[in-house]
Automatic annotation (TrEMBL):
GN (gene name): proB
Physiological role: Catalyzes the transfer of a phosphate group to glutamate to form L-glutamate 5-phosphate.
PUA domain mapped to chain residues: 305-388
Gene3D superfamilies in the cross-refs: Acetylglutamate kinase-like, PUA domain
Organism taxonomic ancestry: Bacteria, Pseudomonadati, Nitrospinota/Tectimicrobiota group, Nitrospinota, Nitrospinia
Record protein name field: Glutamate 5-kinase
Gene Ontology terms, MF aspect: glutamate 5-kinase activity
Record key words, sorted: Amino-acid biosynthesis, ATP-binding, Cytoplasm, Kinase, Nucleotide-binding, Proline biosynthesis, Transferase
Organism this protein belongs to: Nitrospina watsonii
PROSITE patterns on file: PUA (PS50890)
Compartments it resides in: Cytoplasm
Length: 397
């Protein structure tokens, strides 16, 4: 972790940019809201000026031969503006109504300004089910590929008009990380309303004070300490804050994709990034990416239950790359069916995730049992492994 960008890091950023052929740019609600209106955050609405500016900047990026996918927040914000709903709290039907009217207004605004730059755009609305089901996941991936091959910029948002909290992806930082991994991008840029990750809370100390927190220029590993530094957003338009950006970066880093968190209120920030300026916070470890399917298991599927395993099973999984056998399962939590995603826990810490070959009810019957006894008990439904190593991903640090 570094607080200032040195010569070595600047060279690292140049190497990353040289390899970029496809970039995902996440634009937050706070970035494209109208900060010049003098209104409160909930009253601002969509800024035509900012979207026009980003259309120009993205055109410059495409002129460099880089394919661009945009993940844009702002539908609910735009809907608030159209429906004049400026209360701090909205119930679920009101949020969904705002999303329904706001999404069309948001896309019309993007289409208008991108068209003036000679760029075509396409709307893609996603829910968690679209990412969780492998066939739908691949269909979305193929659609994006077809659009990019034809020079069309996909503009992605969560389908907020029909999703509720239980089935939401949750925030567009997470969505942008999933999209970057799905699309095989070489860089994720998250445009926020702050400069990046600081080593303290910059809101509590004057910027010019001697003990003012410093911007962290490079994070090469996301530790619990780094996660603690990331606070919740103070912007009522935002869902996650810096914490969700750090978690998004954690996902992309595991897949071999660097993430930059920068201040999108700087209208020239994209120009500065592609000119090689050391702006914002770079999250990048340089680790080799894991296979697409295993990334999907580890970071896209929502676990339906938890399996606690004994010390022997933990060593076999983590140290020797073995499958999880029934004999190593101590407790089963949750209700799930064959093929569900589960957390695998040892001594209170999550060590892996995987897809189970048994339902929770069957696992309750066979946990702790030897293979020969299980074969006699379950007959034709027998699987030697609870989770096969091909369906298992180590997630412990």
């Amino acid at each position: 972790m570094a607080t200032r960008a040195g010569a070595k890091e600047k060279e690292l950023r140049r190497e990353i940019l040289a390899a970029v052929k496809r970039v995902v740019i996440k634009i937050g609600s706070g970035v494209i809201s109208d900060h010049e209106s003098g209104r409160t955050a909930l009253e601002r609405g969509l800024s035509q000026k900012r979207i026009r500016s980003y259309a120009r900047r993205i055109k410059h990026i495409t002129d460099l031969g880089v394919e661009v996918i945009v993940v844009s927040s702002g539908a609910i914000m735009a809907g608030r503006q159209r429906l004049n709903l400026v209360r701090s709290t909205l119930d679920i039907p009101e949020k969904q109504a705002c999303a329904a009217i706001g999404q069309s207004f948001l896309m019309r605004t993007y289409e208008n300004f991108f068209d003036k730059q000679g760029l075509k755009v396409a709307q893609i609305l996603l829910g968690h089910d679209d990412l969780e089901h492998r066939k739908r996941f691949l269909n979305i991936k193929h659609t994006m590929e077809a659009l990019l091959e034809r020079g069309v910029i996909p503009i992605v948002n969560e389908n907020d008009s029909v999703t509720v909290d239980e089935i939401k992806i949750g925030d567009n930082d997470t969505l942008s990380a999933n999209v970057a991994c799905m699309a095989g991008a070489q860089l994720l840029i998250i445009l926020s309303d702050v400069d990046g990750l600081y080593n303290g809370d910059p809101a509590r100390v004057p910027k010019n004070a001697a003990d003012a927190p410093q911007l962290i220029s490079h994070v090469d590993r996301i530790t619990p300490d780094i996660e603690q530094l990331a606070g919740k957003s103070r912007n009522p338009l935002s869902v996650g804050g810096m914490y969700t950006k750090v978690l998004a970066a954690k996902k992309t880093m595991s897949f071999g994709i660097p993430t930059l968190v920068v201040n999108g209120l700087d209208g020239k920030i994209l120009d500065r990034i592609f000119a090689g300026a050391a702006v914002g916070t770079l999250f990048w470890s340089g680790k080799t990416k894991i296979r697409d399917r295993k990334h999907w298991i580890a970071h896209t599927l929502k676990p339906a239950g938890t399996l606690t395993v004994d010390a022997g099973a933990c060593r076999a999984i983590v140290e020797r790359g073995k499958s999880l056998l029934p004999a190593g399962v101590v407790t089963v939590e949750g209700k799930f069916e064959f093929g569900a995603s589960v957390r695998i826990v040892s001594d209170g810490s999550e060590i892996a995730r995987g897809l189970v070959n048994y339902s929770s009810a069957d696992l309750e019957r066979i946990k702790g049992m030897k293979t020969s006894a299980i074969r006699n008990l379950v007959g034709t439904a027998f699987y030697e492994e609870v989770v096969h190593r091909d369906d298992l991903v180590i997630v412990s640090s």
